[in-house]
Specification:
By secondary structure, the chain is mainly beta. The protein is built from three helices and 47 strands.
Length: 722
């Protein structure tokens, strides 16, 4: 066994040494180009590539690794071709594989988890601005994940959807994907008779944890890095349509409970391409009955927690409206790299209030680019209910590109109801990048309302550096006591905050581990009177393994100043200064395997007592159609005057018959609130971007002290393109 282990480490080194002359530097490597030829014959998208046009097209065969060995030629051959006619851009890829029986595919769902499957993908920078692009990813089953990228990958719209005709198949030497992308799906400059587009291709060989690109990238870069794409030439005299989409829907639902009822309704969504780069979205009588229930969360703090948006209308182009405590992965510009401490605009404030659904009459959104300006406007109107007055919501966002990879912007929000009830917010921000590795980020915002209180502003300035070895950042933030963005989200007001971190990320090239990232960070939050509210000093170690698994470890010294006592699941935290230490460790296994798991452990002090927590999420997959995901979080709290536990459990079962028939069952149980949530959804995609949903949803009070609420809904949507 020892000899085998030695050989396993020696052989890759020998192989790399043997091709040493072929290793390239992704930074200095010239960006490649490919020519697309116009065809007159019809292409049958069937995955067989037997039309003469495919035989005559130029081929791409040279791909380079970004992972695991940067700049090394791909271990498996890939052949890519492009052609076009008046309506479509055609792309084909033959993904040769020396062991086709080991190809990994994990899902049939649209917007599948792209990190854990074999796939082929491409980016299309149709305006050739080296900053924005459409991205399409395909797995072996033909499932698609599509998104729209802005700001060279810093911003993206994961909910953008476009029609793409595609077919995949496995053969004895690998697998093939053939696609036809309608020009009506894309946006481009119609004034140009000859088009040059940015383009790049990705192939992922998951069992080898290998990512290869036609236009080479570094290990930490992704297909989202539009500035490093190659070039597609040869497109002449192509035209998009007016790109008008009408999507009506009809819904029939039955409410279950003490006051059961049956009703029906209809609505309409309209999408219109005002210009090649500007889109108008209109909605009437908006309905979100098909949306999955929020994940139950345990809150062991005295501050509110953030719930992500899940409604499609608000998710599309959401990045344009982002303003606040954004965090950049690998720069640690927040105590939590995915921190959600403050947003000036949080779409969950529209149509939702304290977990209750508020009917949306309708609204519209205009978003896109005009030259170097990125513009987003939003207007929505909700109905009045027993718990809410009719309310109008307005939003305007403007960002201007400056320098090569930087932007400045402003935002305005408005929420108003009948009478003298209103809330307005204003803000300016800047996101600047210099010398490739240096980031400066800052904002200043104010709110206004009927009370017209002073001290109603919030500001932040952050500096970050990340090169090939170091990552460090520091920021200062101040939030006024009266700062109140009713259309946004904020965890704390009346604070001054200082944060700093320093770490290294050593990239390795072996069969066990890819990256090791030790770091330290300090965070101090004070009241305006200089009294410490929160102080943490942490040391952490993040590990990325060769098979894609991750481990994150952190030890923290805590100080909490509690100036107002607060309840905590039937107990109470009294005023005073609390000093305690705790540790956390998370391990996420290789999710491409049939059985995978995420395990999190937290232990140590907790105010005047102790806390022990375990988080477990396990995934069992049978083929690519059937999966079972079980999760749970158990928290055992021991305080000076009480002991209690706070637990949640979840079960998600999926059976996907095909890419057009998707089924799921989702159960959640919140033990603290004695609440059982059920959600069953059947989704039939009967035409491109058109769905039939059958949904059962229920919130059940286990103790039956309150009435249960639930409904059954049948919803039909149909997209008509003009």
């Amino acid at each position: 066994m020892y000899k085998i282990s030695i050989l396993a480490n020696i052989i890759p080194c020998i192989l790399i040494a043997g091709i040493g002359d072929n290793i390239i530097d992704p930074i200095s490597f010239p960006r490649p180009s490919i020519r697309a030829y116009r065809i007159n014959e019809e292409i049958n998208v069937d995955g067989y590539l037997n039309e003469p046009a495919w035989m005559l097209a130029d081929s791409i065969t040279q791909f380079y690794q970004a992972k695991p060995y940067v700049g090394t030629p791909a271990s498996e051959k890939t052949t890519v071709k492009t052609i076009y006619d008046n309506k479509f851009l055609y792309v084909s890829a033959i993904c040769y594989d020396s062991n086709p029986e080991e190809i990994i595919t994990t899902s049939l769902e649209q917007d599948f988890d792209s990190q854990n499957t074999d796939l082929f993908g491409l980016s299309l920078d149709t305006f050739y601005d080296r900053e924005s692009a459409f991205i399409f990813l395909f797995n072996v089953n033909g499932a698609i994940k599509d998104l729209y990228i802005t700001n060279d990958g810093a911003g993206y719209n994961a909910n953008w959807e476009g029609i793409v005709h595609r077919k995949t198949r496995i053969f004895d030497k690998g697998w093939i994907v053939e696609m036809a992308i309608p020009f009506t799906t894309l946006r481009f400059d119609i004034k140009l008779k000859t088009q040059d587009w940015g383009i790049n291709f990705l192939r992922r060989i998951r069992r080898k944890t290998e990512d290869v690109y036609w236009s080479p990238l570094q290990r930490h870069e992704r297909l989202l890095k539009i500035s490093k794409s190659g070039t597609l030439t040869g497109l002449r005299e192509i035209q998009p349509s007016r790109n008008l989409g009408l999507k009506p829907f009809g819904i029939s639902n039955k409410t279950i409970g003490e006051n059961s009822s049956t009703s029906g309704d209809f609505g309409l969504d309209v999408k219109y391409g005002v210009t090649p780069s500007m889109t108008l979205d209109l909605t009437y009588n908006t309905d979100f009955s098909q949306v999955e229930a929020d994940e139950e969360k345990v809150n062991l703090t005295r501050f509110p927690i953030f719930f992500p948006e899940k409604r499609d209308f608000f998710l599309e182009n959401a990045n344009i409206f982002t303003f606040g405590d954004i965090s950049k992965l690998d720069y640690r510009m927040a105590p939590n790299r995915y921190s959600r401490e403050f947003f000036l605009f949080n779409s969950r404030n529209i149509g939702l209030e304290n977990g209750n659904v508020i009917p949306i009459v309708g609204g519209g959104r205009l978003s896109g680019m005009i030259g170097d300006f990125e513009i987003g406007t939003l207007g929505m109107q909700t109905n009045g209910t027993e718990i809410s007055d009719p309310t109008n919501f307005g939003l305007f966002r403007l960002r201007k590109k400056i320098l090569e990879r930087s932007n400045i912007g402003m935002i305005m929000t408005n929420k108003s109801s009948p009478g003298y009830s209103f809330n307005q917010s204003y803000g300016v921000d800047a996101n600047l990048q210099f010398f490739r590795y240096l980031i400066l980020y800052g904002y200043h915002a104010k709110t206004e309302g009927p009370s017209n209180n002073t001290d109603n502003s919030a500001s932040r300035i952050a500096v970050a550096w990340r090169d090939q070895f170091f990552n460090t950042s520091i920021y200062y933030k101040r939030v006024g006591e009266s700062f109140n963005p009713e259309l946004g989200f904020i965890r704390r007001t009346g604070i001054n905050e200082l944060y700093g971190t320093f770490g290294v990320h050593k990239e390795l090239s072996n069969q066990f581990m890819y990256e090791i990232n030790p770091y330290v960070e300090v965070n101090q939050i004070e009241k305006p009177t200089s009294e410490i509210e929160t102080q943490t000093i942490s040391a952490g170690l993040d590990l990325i393994f060769a098979d894609g698994a991750r481990m994150m470890n952190k030890f923290t010294k805590n100080r909490e100043g509690v100036y107002y006592s607060f309840p905590l699941y039937g107990s109470q935290i009294d005023t005073g200064d609390y000093y305690f230490n705790n540790y956390t460790t998370y391990f996420m296994s290789n999710k491409s395997r049939p059985i995978s798991a995420t395990v999190g452990l937290t232990g140590g002090g907790f105010y005047n007592g102790k806390r022990r927590s375990i988080t477990l999420k396990s995934l069992f997959r049978i083929g690519y159609r059937f999966s079972i995901e079980m999760g749970g979080q158990r928290n055992e709290i021991s305080l000076s005057d009480s002991d209690f536990s706070v637990n949640t459990y979840s079960l998600k079962i999926k059976y996907n018959h095909s890419i057009n028939l998707l089924n799921s069952l989702y159960l959640q149980y919140n033990e603290a609130e004695r609440k059982l949530i059920s959600n069953v959804r059947i989704n039939i995609i009967h035409a491109p971007l058109s769905d039939l949903f059958l949904v059962y949803s229920d919130i059940r009070d286990v103790d039956k002290t309150n009435s249960n609420t639930g409904y059954i809904a049948l919803k039909l949507t149909r997209l008509f393109g003009i």
